[in-house]
Write a structure and sequence with these properties.
The strands form two sheets. Strands 1-2 form a two-stranded antiparallel ribbon. A two-stranded antiparallel sheet has the order 3-4. The chain is mainly α. The chain is about 50% helix and about 10% strand. It has four helices and four strands; from the N terminus they run αααββαββ. The longest helix is centred in the middle third of the chain and has 32 residues. A hairpin with a 6-residue loop joins strand 3 and strand 4.
């Protein structure tokens, strides 16, 4: 017997959901953190827990949702405020089997250019300050600069193995 609420309570007893309810719930949660009713680290850890549960269930659930929806013979249906559409997603084409000489030539050039670009980027990452050199073929003086670094400060949550 469970005496603490968990994610299954939300799933079992969840009400009809719409975008407005999602927004209201999100704002209420942030307000509870701001008012000190909930600790941000606790919320982040619980969100990570829910995210991991969702990731563990998602593929099996996808298959079961499609099977359930297929029982009704519908590609689109609504259930508790959510609209479900059966559709093809993530379509990818493999052109390497087309035997098209023009495409193969373009692809080969792209691969070579991509490799050259990676090598040049690796070199540019080593620059700590501007670098000036003379292009021997043209005599032009060229100054290059280190790349700008851009990042977002975030956090990572990992679970102990116990």
């Amino acid at each position: 017997m469970r005496n603490k609420p968990d994610i299954r309570d939300v799933v079992y007893y969840g009400n009809e959901v719409n975008k407005e309810i999602i927004k209201e719930t999100s704002l209420a949660l942030l307000n509870d953190i701001d008012e000190g009713f909930m600790h941000p680290l606790q919320v982040a850890a619980q969100f990570k827990f829910v995210e991991d549960v969702i990731n563990n269930v998602k593929e099996e659930l996808r298959q079961r949702v499609i099977a359930e929806q297929t029982k009704y013979g519908k590609e689109r249906m609504t259930f508790h405020g959510a609209t479900f559409d059966i559709k093809e997603a993530g379509i990818k084409y493999d052109f390497s089997h087309c035997e098209d000489a023009i495409w193969n030539d373009i692809d080969k050039k792209m691969q070579m250019l991509t490799e050259r670009r990676k090598e040049r980027e690796a070199f540019l990452k080593t620059l700590k300050e501007r670098f000036t050199y003379v292009d021997e073929s043209t005599g032009e003086i060229i100054t290059i600069y280190p790349p700008q670094k851009k990042s977002t400060t975030t956090y990572a949550i990992t679970w102990s193995k116990e």
